[in-house]
Specification:
CATH topology of the largest domain: Rossmann fold
Shape: globular
Distance between the termini: 60 Å
Number of strands: 23
CATH class of the largest domain: Alpha Beta
Largest sheet: 5 strands, mixed
Length: about 550
Amino acid sequence: MLKMMINGQEREYAEGTSFRQIAEEYQKDYANDIVLVKMNGRLRELFKHAQDGTLEFVTTEDEIGMQTYRRSMLFLTIKSIYDVTNHEIRKVTVQFSLSKGLYIEIDSDHKVDAELVAKIDARIREMVDKKLPIMKKSMTADDAMESFGEHGMTDKEKLFKYRRASRVNIYSINEFEDYYYGYMLPDTGYLKYFQLIPFDEGLVLQMPEKKAPKVVPPFEASMKLFTTMKESARWGEKLGITTVGDLNEVIVRGELSELVLIQEALMEKKLGDIAAMIAADRKKKLVMLAGPSSSGKTTTSHRLSIQLKTLGLNPHPIAVDNYFVDREFTPRDADGNYNFECLECVDLELFNRDMTALLNGERVELPVFNFKTGKKEYKGDYLQLGPDDILVIEGIHCLNDKLSYSLPMENKFKIYLSALTQLNVDEHNRISTTDGRLIRRIVRDARTRGADAQKTISMWPSVRRGEQENIFPYQETADVVLNTALIYELAVLKPFAEPLLFAVPRNCPEYLEAKRLLKFFDYFLVAGTEDIARNSILREFIGGSCFHA
């Protein structure tokens, strides 16, 4: 008999009992579906057999549980696309996140319209009703490469070519095989909550979030963001670099230097174009620059300022953080901790008074916030704007007009930054933009703040909540959306991030996330830093920037 500790009680089960059988017994005690378990602290899929030790349940209300649901839902959707089109497809590509779902393109002779999407939807629901098993098998990397190569999935063939692991796990539904990075549900019966929406040249698979795992949120397309992401995806296609396997081949061929030069030239061109837009309207005196954590705001503001100078303007950087209220007046969150993400952290009256005075041509002494004492200080930093002077204001609330409530709209030019990863693991496994930013932050925090990866990972959910409340709702109000992701950056960040992730203790809550990121890095070959320019956004994270330490 197996002896297990479950929810504080000792239980016995017969040898060979599956985790799914135990989960079904306890499901009544949980509001949301149990989709994985932790056996002695290690994640396990439900089809596996139980063993002695401590068992914990993972539901769709947990981040890793919702990721498992969404991954399984995507697998079923891709199978349904192949079924409905009778496999007359060149490829199916999961491009990027959109609204609360995934934007998917189908390369085939079939027109992707409402009729086709309705057929795919019906096929998914048919397989949900049948509760078809999602099978998992292990095979050698060589056999997997040969199998996927025969089916025209050359992206997976390239991916396995550069992995050190000798074996890979392949999932199947009714003999339709595919590779996925991460865990899966045991059958299609779990996949009840979704919506398919025809959109642009493809479709959107809209899915729930962990805060409401049984509710499909309404589809709300952020068109400016979508246009930017699609442009980045097309740029990658023109270069022939859409997946990690493509990038690895560039590194192996010794062609990374040229790729770096092309990417940096593109970034410089975009910044030059933005500067030209600002310079063309002489009423624009306030460049308001915002973006989520690790989007490269500091470097971008410096590089944009240089471009503005080439056009005869005289930019002055203003950090909204210098207008924080004194620490004693900082709001606290539900846990009693200082909430540095909310708008009320900023002395709005002082900020607006100073910016209005500057617009009126008055001489203003600007504050500097001392983060050690928690107070603003004045050190004789005076500023007065002339005809060619312009303010480049950086802060997470810069797109929110409540920050600059007294400043005329005609004087503002808003820029939204985000690191919108355009690279996929393969055509069906996208790289999360959030993962890219988290990895950037882990590397930077260790270098500049002395924070280890465990601390950065533990803080990340709070950072994400702040972004959801204070940044993302305003992204569509921007005049320009700028993608700061570099197609090769994860290969450069890998040797910086891996030692930090390996240092996360096995017995802490952050270990599973660190382990997931380490497995993710297994796909990448390492790229050196010798070709990374001193003004590159990457230097903000790995060090060596000409703009800051």
